[in-house]
Amino acid sequence: MTEFQIFPAIDLRNGKCVRLFQGDYAQETIYGDSPVEMAKKFVEAGAQWIHMVDLDGAKDGVRINDQVVIEAAKLGAKVQVGGGIRTREDIEHYLSNGIERVIIGSLAIRNPELAVSFIEEFGADRIVIGIDAKNGMAATEGWIETSGQAATEVANYFAAKGGKHFIYTDIATDGTLAGPNIEANKALADSEDAQVIVSGGIGSLEDVRNVKLASIHSNIAGVIIGKALYEKRFTLEEALSC
Question: What are 116-124's contacts with CB under 8 Å, separation 24+?
Answer without folding.
Answer: 116/158, 116/161, 116/162, 116/163, 118/88, 118/91, 119/158, 119/161, 119/162, 119/163, 120/162, 121/88, 122/91, 122/95, 124/162, 124/163, 124/164, 124/165
